[in-house]
Every structure is written in structure tokens, then in C-alpha cells.
Amino acid sequence: MASSANSNPVPKLYRSVIEDVINEVRELFLDEGVDEQVLMELKTLWENKLMQSKAVEGFHTEEQAALQAAAQQQAQQSQQVTQQTQSQQVLLPQQQQVTNWQSTRPNVTSAPQQQVIVQDPKILQHMSATGMSAAATAATLALPTGVSPYQQLITSQGQILQVVRAANGAQYIIQPQQQMVLQQQVLPQMQPGGVQAPVIQQVLTPLQGGLPQQTGVIIQPQQIVLTGNKVQQNTQVMQMAGQAGQMQQVQQVQQVQQAQGGAAQGAPQQQQQPQAQGGAAPGAPQQQQAQQMTQPQPPMMLQVDGAGDTSSDEDEEEEEEEYDEDEDEDKDKDGGEDGQVEEEPLNSEDDVSDEEDQELFDTENVVVCQYDKIHRSKNKWKFHLKDGIMNLNGRDYVFSKAVGDAEW
Amino acid sequence: MAYQLYRNTTLGNSLQESLDELIQTQQITPQLALQVLLQFDKAINTALANRVRNRVNFKGSLNTYRFCDNVWTFVLNDVEFREVTDLVKVDKVKIVACDGKRASYTCVMILLFDQLLDTPHL
Q1: Are B38 and B67 found together in one domain?
Q2: Shared-domain flag, residues B65 and B116
Q3: What is the pLDDT of residues A165-207, one digit of tens each?
Q4: Taking CB atoms and an 8 Å cutoff, what residues of chain A touch B35?
Q5: B88 shares a domain with B42
Q6: Do the Cβ atoms of B54 and A4 come within 8 Å?
Q7: pLDDT tens, A17-28?
Q8: Which of A266, A356, A384, B31 could join A372 in a cystine, given CB atoms 3.0 to 4.6 angstroms apart?
Q9: CATH classification at residue B47
Q10: What is the pLDDT of residues A335-384, one digit of tens each?
Q11: Hey, is the C-beta of B93 within 8 angstroms of any chain A C-beta?
């Protein structure tokens, strides 16, 4: 990304506001007896939504992620070696992943393998560095068609996740950095002395020529859970409520470490071989596996509103329309009989246009501010505004002063 | 009480949505959510007043104007927003502006309290 001469003040401002608010309400939360965890969840939800809206450049979160990762790395250096190297592994691919994901965004619809390959070299490097099995040549992730990397999320521990939006609008989280695992093997990541309860790890399959799919990431359409854990991949419990749309052929065994065997909702996702979907119909086996894997998930619901709605409302509307049409016809007939031909509605020459409602726009450009002075001279208006937040063409801007002219 | 004006922004809406989610999962009470929003109002008002220092010019044609309850609402068409660094053009923009002189708001509050307490300020 090119560094601009003037840094955008918006991300910093938003970040400072978020920090202020969270810190101020911490007391309120404690007074109510609400756990700090909920406060963190609020913060995470808030930040995620901001990033999803794309109204703000998300770079500030990346910086924060880098900071957090650095801090995390230092904290973890007292821990075991493998964890250390793996956390380093976390750091380096992060920066790469940024570019990878962003650069591969347009490629999603075709050949998911491409994305996979991009990440391979990075991981391979680290893999060899850490001395782990080189069998993990496969991509860490494979995205199904129609799923596009959306945004990068940062968990409170600084892990970068990829939020992915499927064609049906459901959003998933992919946890990109994982330990490499042999095909069909689940290697215990943590040392035996670790406190961890069953560790679910990512199953990677090497790229096989001709296989259109890699084992990717389990994308739970409705719940994605990353349990918090002090060691290594500190993932945070997050739930994404999304539509239970069709899941494409992406499955990932997320590395979810269940702290103290605590309930990780929907976590146990040890997949056998999802590759079976290779060329098969993407929809059905996916859903089956998804449903098998995810326990407390509600049963997948097809959307029944909209086109599939019951016809009672439609009948009423039709009746009303018919009634109106009858009235109009009668009026026209009467007008004709009187000798006054009124073929056009009476309000056809009115100033006020009815078409404003019909305009389609993606974002309503809004400026929310305070006014210092509003001045008018004949039809020339002058605006003196201050302390405003603008959303123009989908992006956010702020100003401390704004001066404008307009003619009415 | 600070203006609740900024709740309908990206920042404010994302906060409200997050709070709604937490309420739905019953992790917080609506009362607590309201407190958070009030805190947000304070924080954003302060931040905008103190931490932002830039100036914007804009020019366009005025489609509609409304002044009600000391709030101006304009709809402008074909507007150019110009900052030192860049230029943004939009076909249509709605501007909602509350009174920048808090005095007016404060005066109203003072008068109300006067009535309650029978202590005439003026």
C-alpha cells in the first residue's frame, strides 16, 4: 500500500473512540456483574463490524495486530520451543497473508487452488524451519467458489482471521495460520505436558494433481468458535451467526484448543476426509458434513421469506390493486363522458418529483454534524458546519470544520 | 447529555448492532446497552471536538432544506467535497446538523429545570 502524505485520521479516531468507550464502560459492566469477557466480545464485535463495513481502512487493525502479535510473541518466548517457532510462524505469514488475501480476492471464483498455492511457500519455509513434516505442502486453505475473502479480523490475541463471505451472504471465519499436519493425521500440537484438552487441528492434504479441492478450513456457517487459550494460538471464542446457506466445498479442521475441556460450542470438528467432495456435487455432501460436524448449530434453515412467502399478503395486495384500478377506470370514464379528457393524472405537472424514492443507491451519503451558521441570501445558501462525520460513497470521513455553498 | 446525533454513523451503528447481538444472547441487559451508548455519545463528541483538525469545503445545489427542533436537514445534489488532499463527488447527500452552540440546548435544559425547581434563572 502506498503511504500517502497525509495519514487518514479516521482509523485512529475510531480506534481512540473505541478504546475510550470500552474503558469507560468497563466499570459499568463490572457493576452489573457482567464478565470482562463480554466486554471483550463487545469490542471485538464492534471492530469486526467496522471492518466489514469497509467504510474505514482496516490498516489500523493490522498495525494493532502486529503490535499484539509482537507482544504475544514476547510473552510466549518463555514457553516451549515449538510454540515459539510456531508463533513466529504466526507473525511472518500475517504480513504475507495481508497481501495474499487481498491480492487473491478477485481470483476467488476460479481455481481456488491459486490461493492455496500462494500461501504455500510461506508456510513451507516455516515448516522447514521448524523441522516439522514437510508433507504439509498443501495449501492451508482452500476457498470454494463463490466465497471471497472479505476482511481480516483480529482476535484479541492478535491472531489474524479471514472473514469470508460466501455468495449467499453468510459470513465465515477462516483461521489461516495453522500448524501443518500430515494428510489424514492429526498431530498433537501441544506438548504432552500441556493442559490442553483435545486439540483439533487442521488437516491438510497435499495438492494432488487434478484434485480440485484441498481440504480447507471448516467454515461453520453459523458458529465459528475459537476458544481462548493461553498457549500459542490464542483464539477467542467467537460466534458468528450467519445464514445457514449452502456450504461449498470448504472444510477446515480448525485448530481449536479447548481450554480445560471447556465446552467449545460446535468445536469438535475433526474431519475425516473432506476431500471426497473432489468433483462431487458441492452442495449436498457439504451440508451433510457440516451438519454432522456442528452440534449445537440450529438445523440449517432455508430462507422462506421473500419469494417463498405465504400468499395471504399477496392476495390482499392484489385485491387492493384491483379495487384501485376499478376506481380509476370509473373516473376516467366519467371524465370522458363529461367532455373533459383527463388522460393524465392530475398531479402530472407538479413540482415535486415522485422519483426520488425510486433512485437506487448503494449508500445514502450522509453527513452528521453540527452547524455554526446557516446563511441564506435569495437562493444562495452558505453553510458553516463543524465536528462532522461523513459517509460518502461508502467511506467515512471526518472534519472539524466544513464550509459549503449551494444554490436552491 | 451529549448529542445522540452520531449514533447513526458507521461507528455508532456498528456499536448498536454489537450491543443488540449481546442483548439477544442475553449477555447484557438493555439498560447496560443504553449506558454504553450514552458513553459513546460522550466519547465521540469529545473526540470530534478535540482530536480532529481538518477542514472541508463543499459545493453543490440545494434540493431541500428543513429546520425543525433546531435541527437543519439538507439534501444536496451533485456535490463536491474538497479537502486539501482529495476530492469526493456524490450525486446526492443528506446533511443533518444540530446546533453547534450548545448554549441553545443548554438553555432549554436550564429552563426546564427552572420550572421543576421553581428557581428562576432569568
Answers
A1: no
A2: yes
A3: 444 544 444 444 444 444 444 444 444 444 444 444 444 444 4
A4: 25, 28
A5: no
A6: no
A7: 888 888 888 888
A8: A384
A9: 1.10.287.190
A10: 444 455 556 677 777 776 555 554 444 568 899 999 999 999 999 999 99
A11: yes
Q: In terms of Cα–Cα distance, which of A292, A289, A291 is closest to A301? A: A291
B121 Cβ under 8 Å from any chain A Cβ: no
| Residue B38 lies in domain | 5-51
Contact A398, B48 (CB under 8 A): yes
* B93 and B66 inside one domain: yes
β pairing state of A160-165 and A148-154: antiparallel
Q: A31 CA to chain B: closest CA distance, Å?
A: 10
| Residue type (1 letter), A49 | K
Asked if residues A189 and A230 have their Cβ atoms less than 8 Å apart, the reply is no
Cell numbers that stand for A35 in this block: 464478565
CA-closest candidate to residue A269, choices A211, A201, A327: A201
Kindly state whether residues B72 and B117 are assigned to the same domain: yes
Residues A25, B99: C-beta atoms closer than 8 Å? no
Q: What is the mean pLDDT of residues A388-405?
A: 91
- Which one-letter amino acid corresponds to residue B112? L
Interface predicted TM-score (ipTM): 0.82
Q: Which of residues 32-51 of B touch A (CB under 8 A)?
A: 32, 35-36, 39-40, 42-49, 51
Please report residues of B whose CB lies closer than 8 A to that of A351: none
